[in-house]
Design a protein that fits this description.
The chain has about 180 residues and is an alpha+beta fold. About 55% of the residues lie in helices and about 15% in strands. It has 2 domains: about 50 residues; about 80 residues, no CATH class. A hairpin with a 4-residue loop joins strand 1 and strand 2.
Length: about 180
C-alpha cells in the first residue's frame, strides 16, 4: 500500500468514526419530546416537592420559635402562648390546650386552653381510669392522629363531658 492509499484509508476510517460519533450524539440530543401528560406529571412532582419543603421549613421555624421562647419568656403563661402561636402556623390551633400530668395523684390540669365553644377545662383526677384521648396519650406516651369520626366514637364511649367536637378533618393530641 502506498502512502497515498494509506492516507485515504486513514482518512476514511477517521471520517467513519467522526460520522458515527456525530450520529450517536445527535441521537442523544434528539430525545423524543415529552408529552403533555409527562409535563403535567413533572409539574405535579415539582409542586409536591415544593409543598413538602415549605412544610418542613414551617416546622423548623415553629420549633425555632418555641425553643427561643423557652429561653426568653418570663413565665409559663407567656411560654404556653408562644407555643400556641408557633404551632398555629403548621396546624389548626383554634381549639388547643396544654395539659400537665401529675403522676403522684394521677391527675391532669389544663393551665392553657383556647376553645371556640367550651370555656372551662376542669382538672381530671384518676386520669388513667378514664377513656379520654388525653389519658390514652399519657398511657401510651405517643401522639395520636385522629379523625373527627374517631373522636365522636371515643366521646360516645366515655361518660365524662368532653369538649365539643368541631367540623375539622383531623384532631391532634400531643404529649
Amino acid at each position: 500500500m502506498c502512502l497515498l492509499e494509506k492516507g485515504i484509508v486513514c482518512s476514511s476510517i477517521i471520517r467513519e468514526y467522526f460520522l458515527l460519533n456525530l450520529l450517536q450524539n445527535m441521537g442523544e440530543m434528539m430525545e423524543p419530546k415529552p408529552t403533555y401528560e409527562d409535563l403535567k406529571n413533572r409539574v405535579h412532582v415539582l409542586e409536591s416537592e415544593i409543598s413538602r419543603q415549605k412544610y418542613f421549613r414551617d416546622i423548623n421555624q415553629a420549633l425555632f420559635k418555641i425553643s427561643n421562647a423557652v429561653n426568653t419568656v418570663a413565665d409559663l403563661d407567656a411560654l404556653f402562648g408562644a407555643i400556641h402561636s408557633a404551632l398555629s402556623h403548621i396546624i389548626d390551633t383554634s381549639n388547643f390546650y396544654i395539659s400537665l400530668y401529675d403522676g403522684s395523684n394521677d391527675s391532669v390540669t389544663f393551665p392553657y386552653f383556647v376553645d371556640t365553644v367550651d370555656d372551662c377545662y376542669p382538672p381530671t383526677i384518676e386520669i388513667s381510669k378514664t377513656e379520654s384521648l388525653t389519658a390514652e396519650v399519657i398511657r401510651t406516651g405517643r401522639p395520636i392522629l385522629i379523625t373527627k369520626d374517631q373522636i365522636l366514637k371515643q366521646r360516645e364511649k366515655t361518660q365524662e363531658k368532653c369538649p365539643a367536637v368541631h367540623h375539622r378533618k383531623f384532631g391532634l393530641v400531643y404529649l
